[in-house]
Structures are given as C-alpha cells and as structure tokens.
C-alpha cells in the first residue's frame, strides 16, 4: 500500500470527513493498531464505551468500521490510513486480531460464493418478450427524436438560444420514456450548450449531428459491424450486464490511475477514473455512479496517482475504452513513460478513433514534454514542435500547472478530444502530481 | 461574399481552407434552416465528392436528412484530418532557479494541515518559521498561498518570502498576486494603487520617517482631501520635530479636516509652537505652595492650580472655553485640556519632583484628581513608557489604555495583577500582545473563558492561537469550570486547543535544524 496523504484524502466523501480524518491521524487516539500484508487495523476510542474497530483490506482497498457513521469511508478509516502513511513505525503488530481475520475470511467467502453462484435459470421467452418490447419503444423514440432534429434543421438553429430549458428537457423526458437514457443525456447536453459564447453554433451543431448519427446507426444496425452495433446500443443507453462482463478473462496489467473526474447531475454523481496499463499501454475509463451521496459497500476506492494490479474487462465496442475492474490489488508505483511524443501523434490517434467511431468523446493521452503557453488571452499546451491545443476548464488548475512547470515542458496526462484538452496531471522530478 | 466564421478560428485554421469554408457554409445553413438555405457542396475536397453525391442523389431522403448526412460526413472528415494549431515564438520566460532550499516533508505536511484548518494565525506562525529558517514552500502550494496573500494583506510579506522565485514568477501572470512582484518602493509610491501607496508609506514611515515626509511633499498638491487625510494619519508613527515644518504649512489647506488633522499632529510634537504655547500657559497655572498641617505644627507642600488670562490664540487652536460637564468648572476644563497636550515630563520639571511625586500631588488635590486622566492621555500621546509604568505602579486607578505601551513582560505582569474585575478588558488588551502569553496569564484567561463559552467560542482560540503558549496544554485540565453544563463544552474546546497547539509544536519541530 503506497498511498500518499493527498491520495488518501481524495478518498474522503466530503470536506468534513477529511478534517475529521486528519484529526484522527494521531497515535494517541488509537488504543491498538497493526498492519500486515493483507490488512490495516486499529481500535479508536470514540465517544462510545467500547473503542471502534476499524479495518482496511489493503489489497482490495475496502473499509469496515464498527462506528455508526453512514459515510464511507468513515473518518476512522481515513484517520487510520493517514496515521499509517505518516508514522509507519508505530504499526508494529502484524498478528491480525480475530475480528480482522473474521472479516477478511467473510470477504473471501463472499467473493468465492459470488464466483460460484450459478446463474438463475432464465426465462428465455419472457426475456425475449421484454427485449422486443424495449426495442419497439426505443425504435419509436428514435423516430420521434429524428423528427425533432429534422424540425430544428428545417427551421434553423438561430432561434435555439431563446428556446429555453423545457424545449430540450421535454424531449429528454420523452427519450427516458422510450427507454433510451443515452439519447436523453445527449439531448440534455444539447440543451446545455452555452449560447453566450462565440461559436456556440458549431458546438450545438456538432452535438445535433451526434444525435442524428446515433439514430441513423440504430436504424441501420443490420448494416454495421457487431462492434459498432455495441457502440450504438451504448450511446442509446442499453446497459451491459456487468456479471457477464466479469466472466470474461480481461486484460491483466499494472494500471496507473491517471485521473479522477467528478460530474454531478440530478443527484447522481458520476466518478470517472482514467487508467493506463503500464505494459499493455492501453487506456481505460472506469465509471462509478453514486446516487444521492449513498455509497455502496463495494465502492471503488482508487485515487489519482495510485497503481493497481488488476484485470480489466472492456465493454465491447469498436474502440474499447470503458471498462470494469474485475479484481484489484494495490501495488507499488512503477516508472511509466509517455506513449505520445507530440500533438501530431495524438491527432493521428484521434483520426484512427474518429474513423471508427463517428461520435466523439473524451479520451486520455499521456504526452511527452508539453508546456503551458498563453496566446490570445487563452492558455494552450505546446509541444516541442510548437504545435498546440487549447486547454479547457483551465481556471481550475492552471496556476498549479504553471507553478509545477515553471515555464518548462513536462510529461503530462491530458483528457479531451479534437482540439481541446484538460490537463489532468504532470510528472515532476519523476513523481506524478494530479492537478 | 465573405462568410461569417462560427467557432474558434484559432484552432480551426489548421484545417484546409476549403473544408473550413465548407463547414462555415454548413453552419450558415443550420442557422437559417434548410427551409431557407441550401448548402453549397461545389467546393468540397475530392475525397468526399463521391459519398456526398450518393447522399444528394438518394431519392428516399428529404432535404433535412440530406443536409444532416452531408454535415455529418464533412464534420467527420474534418476531425479525421485535423492537425494541431502551430504557433511559433510563444515564449514564456522560465522561472528563475530557487536560491533557497525547499522546506522538508514534515513542514509541508503541517502546512497542509494548517491550510485545511483555514487557520490564518497558525499559517502566519508557520510562514514566520519558514522565513526564519530561510526555506521556501514546494511549487504545488505556491498558487494557494499567493491567493491567500491576495486576501490576507498582513501575510503578503511572509508569503512573498516563502514562495521564493517561483512565487514572484507566477505572480506575473495574475494581477491579484502582484504584491509578490519586486517593485521598488518609490515606484510603488508613485504608481501604485491607493492601498499600495498607503502600505508603502506606512512601511517607509516606520524605517525612514524623513523620507516618508519627503515623498508626501512631492505629491501633496496632486492628492485629494480624502487621500491627504489618510496619509496624514500615517505620520502619527515616529512623529518628531522634523515634521513641524511640513505640518505647519498645512494651516493654509482648503480642507478643514486636513487642517484639523495637521494641527492635532502638531500637538503630538513637544517642540511645536502649539505645544510650547500650552506648556507656557500651564507653567503659569501650576504652582506649589506650602500649607500648614497638623494644627499648624508642620507644613506640607500642596498643588495650586490657578489659570491666568488665556490668550485667544489658545482657544483658536482647539481648546474649548466652556466646560460641557458639571464635574469641571470652565477653568478646570481648560487646564484639563492643556494637560492633555503637554508632555508629562513638564510636570516633573515644573514641580521639581519625580513622576511618583507628581502623581501623589495630583491625587492629593481635589482638582488635581480630575486632571490626572488628562495626564494619562498625554502619556499615551507622547508615548512616554516611563510615565506609563509609573502611573500603573503608583496610581490608585487602573489605566488599561497605557498598559499597551509597556514592554511585553510588564504588560503580562500587570494583566495578571489586575485580571480580577477587569477580565474582558484585560483579555482584549492581551489579544494585542506581540509575544505569547505567560502560562499564568493563559491559565487565568482560560479559567475565565471556559465559564463564558458563548462569548469565547472555538473561533476565539483559533484566531489567537499564536498567543497561546505550548505549555498551556498542561493547564487545560485545571481550567475546567465547576458547572457540569460547561464542562463538556470545555472538554471539547480543550481538545481543539490541544490540536492547534500540536500544529504549533509540529511547526517548530519541522523547522528545527
């Protein structure tokens, strides 16, 4: 377990937990504490008569605590991790107590049971009926959406800024009714276009074209290859059975967590983890959804800069990117090298993706020696050949990026597409610094 | 016809000009609608001519779909052919190399903890230690500290010192952080913002009072009345006979406020004409006389305060003619006012006795008693520390106003001595200490504040942690209030204070060589 203090704090569910966790990173608060290869544990004297028993599976990064907190991980888990990072020498006990071994055993049993669990017999007729019913609903929805798109094109987009929220939201809701949540999100994104900036017409039109392409792909499913069919289904919002995915072997590698992005909409927080396979040199995007702040017990606890030994299974598609983690073990950092030398190589990679996938989405790239430069009052990232791409959301991180770069070029992780990218992290003196 | 350009030309100008124009036509059509405009595909690149023809010739498609398919094709062609925007000679001068070492890992960790506590006094404490050790902070925190510096003006000097060359370099990109830029003080005085000018004049007045007046004289005719008032207030620091010439010239100022302020400043200078005039009048007023005592068996020296004819010039200089309070007669009130503006040493010379002797004479006299508070004000006005100590030692009344003039140790001792009965005022004064409270004073303060948890909550300890000594941890338990309902609050507060003190201790340890 090689987490830095900064990385541990990013696991905290909120600011209050960070603060409380820091307060508990104090040896005096812990009645007992110990660590071995599998777990980290400690007993913390809280307000109750008995100390709280806090335990962390360090291989799979899972937390358990006997405190009544609903937060996950709780302040005790964070405090124990922080204390271990700060003062490893205090953790001299390596013999796990009964309550720790019991928990670890239960976890193993649960995983084995899950693996061994036989699939319930599927009522194939009912399933086929359900699929057919959904397919019909989606088809109807797609046709309705196409009419809406064509109406917009016929009448012109000049009036779009005055249309207001409901114009787009009503259609998004129709798509939800048609069981096409992916299309609903695309319509919402269209409505979220910033009509107050120069060039909104291009942004709006591109998104409108994306919607049209997906509907066209759905209509012509029989004429496109299987992989692209899967992409179309994903864009429309058909979900993939994760248990089925987990049955696949997956890609085993040492993965570096490049970045964690958070998006919030309608009480749902989407965590986007960008991973990079050290040996396979593949990128992956792992999504985690948190509804109304309620974290599941199997919540993924990884943080930018962390390395995990894991098998990842990619969702099927023509240019696979989204993946799920089958099994992860925290591991020690290794040296990795940027696999793109300059922006031209990134542009070439973009061409490969765009040729296979007509709908653009963000991808991560690890690029050598970029430096921030200012041009026309905007910040750009420039490579050694003076080629550059525009930075987005830079107000959030530009000062840290500048301070770290000191005007020099750095190896960098960027996330974006076409000509606009967000800097997600840099290597400084061999150390990865998430931005 | 020249097409309007929709979008960021900066990053689409790498596309072939043809495809860019084509895309603009696509956007123009979208703007107006296919009902009103038909896109022109005559100039598309050769590679996509054939697929475009297929779309256009497809009889099953209406014109909207033909447009959408053609637009999607051209858009994808654009994306596939995109190359980055090239711009040479965009140079950002790199930050100069650091001359000082970075602080160690432990110090960095404490700094992170302090930042997450959002505790400014502790941050100041950390920065003082960092600056004293000659260390600088790591680059990833430089922007956070510069931002804090923009909000916390008092920390700017320390932040500038601790952010090293990287901080100065980074500040060049953000106007709000320009406090970190190296600019000559005179340049700042001449070209800075009103706030910067005020700060630089204050600092200069402290170190080089004559230069500060020189600067003021140079720009005086260009300043407005409000600015003049602000700058004159700064002259209170290190005021001396050297300022008389400039201040006397201000008697002809248009602004009444400026004139009054200049006169008031002159009243702070013993050598000024106005103070000399008051002193001369007071010398005629204050005398000693011998009086029989003990049924005529002995004599004692008593004070005689008798006001002579007062010249009109004295009243014109701001001395009130009539008393506004029943306790003073008109003459007594004039004497009281004169005593306020005359250096306390006058009384020693006039009465030929020590400060203690003067205080005794005044206290023993009915009118003198009334004049004594004016003497206290004069002690403060003329910043006479010896007299401040004498008044606190020999006066029957506790004068908090002058306690702040004493050296830290004496202030601490008097705070302990007069604590009971003056708790809140003593605490308020103690908050201005420039060094930590003694453990005894801390214990007294804690014992009192623990009983008044609503008035002295966590924020009180957080804001003044720099004054609480590390030894205070040992007395926290002893300050536990007797009331049960206050005990749990104090237990929580004690824990909080312990945490803050721990951060102080960690700071000191982290910077130990």
Your description of this structure?
The complex is a heterodimer of chains A (435) and B (513). By secondary structure, chain A is α+β, with helices and mostly antiparallel strands. The model of chain A has no long low-confidence stretch (mean pLDDT 89). The N terminus of chain B is likely disordered.
Strand and helix layout:
The complex is a heterodimer of chains A (435) and B (513).
Chain A: H1 5-10, H2 15-23, E1 30-35, E2 39-44, E3 52-57, E4 62-65, H3 75-86, H4 98-116, H5 124-155, H6 165-177, H7 181-191, H8 200-219, H9 226-236, H10 242-246, E5 251-265, E6 268-277, E7 283-291, E8 307-314, E9 323-331, H11 343-356, E10 363-375, E11 378-382, E12 387-391, H12 398-405, E13 410-417, E14 420-428, E15 431-434
Parallel strand pairs in A: 12-14
Antiparallel strand pairs in A: 1-2, 2-3, 3-4, 5-6, 5-8, 6-7, 8-9, 10-11, 10-13, 11-12, 13-14, 14-15
Chain B: H1 9-12, H2 17-32, H3 49-57, H4 63-80, E1 85-86, H5 105-117, H6 120-133, H7 139-151, H8 156-171, H9 185-191, H10 194-207, H11 209-219, H12 225-234, H13 244-249, H14 256-266, H15 273-285, E2 286-293, E3 298-305, H16 312-316, H17 330-340, H18 345-351, H19 355-364, H20 366-381, H21 385-394, H22 400-403, H23 408-417, H24 423-430, H25 439-451, H26 458-463, H27 484-510
Helix pairs in contact in B: 2-4, 3-4, 5-6, 5-27, 6-8, 6-27, 7-8, 9-10, 10-11, 10-12, 12-14, 17-20, 19-20, 19-21
